[in-house]
Design a protein that fits this description.
Layout: H1 10-18, H2 27-40, H3 45-58, H4 64-67, H5 72-79, H6 88-108, H7 111-116, E1 124-125, H8 139-150, H9 158-167, E2 171-172
Parallel strand pairs: 1-2
Helix pairs in contact: 2-3, 2-6, 2-9, 8-9
């Protein structure tokens, strides 16, 4: 069975086969991916995948209402948690992003409605032969990044937004030889 070239090892293979590129419209899961993609900045995605369950535990299963109420004691506790990336800026960004996420939901009715408008509500289907062709950012990710930054989000640069868009299926970047390309 052919897969995208990056899907090596059990954890990556399972993620590739079951999640990556599958359209997500559940707000909680969209928020989870947004926070995890921000946490990944400067690190490898495998690092975050290995810590994903720890993140779910530490961040109240990505319940934005709870995270938005985190205080300095909770930040201190998170900074001491070896199960997550212990970076103060990323932790504080997750809290700020929870507050911005709630404001977006209030404005649009859902976070889903806000982010999916950048692809016209339908996944962009690319036709890459190899990973070398896959861009790190696109005009759509630039626009999403600009919008989220304007709304107060942090760790949402265009490259992070593009990785988010790939992960949640807003963009289908499976290579043409991958069994997931047609799905």
């Amino acid at each position: 069975m052919n897969r995208c070239a990056w899907a090596k090892g059990d954890l990556y293979t399972a993620y590739h086969d079951k999640e990556w590129g599958v359209p997500v419209h559940d707000d909680r899961l969209l928020f989870e991916f947004l926070i995890l993609e921000g946490a990944q900045a400067g690190l490898s995605w495998i690092t975050i995948l290995k810590k994903r369950e720890n993140y779910r535990r530490a961040f109240d299963n990505f319940d934005a209402r709870k995270i938005a109420r985190y205080d300095s004691r909770k930040v201190k506790k998170l900074l001491a948690d070896p199960g997550i990336v212990r970076n103060r800026l990323k932790i504080e960004a997750a809290i700020r992003n929870a507050r911005a996420f709630l404001a977006v939901r209030k404005e649009f009715g859902s976070f889903d409605a806000c982010v999916w408008r950048f692809v016209g509500g339908q996944p962009i289907r690319n036709h890459w032969k190899s990973l070398k062709e896959v861009p790190a950012r696109t005009p759509e990710s630039d626009a999403l990044s600009k919008d989220l930054l304007k709304r107060g989000f942090k760790f949402v640069g265009s490259t992070i937004c593009y990785a988010f868009m790939q992960a949640v299926g807003m963009v289908n970047d499976h290579t043409r030889d991958c069994f997931r390309y047609e799905r």
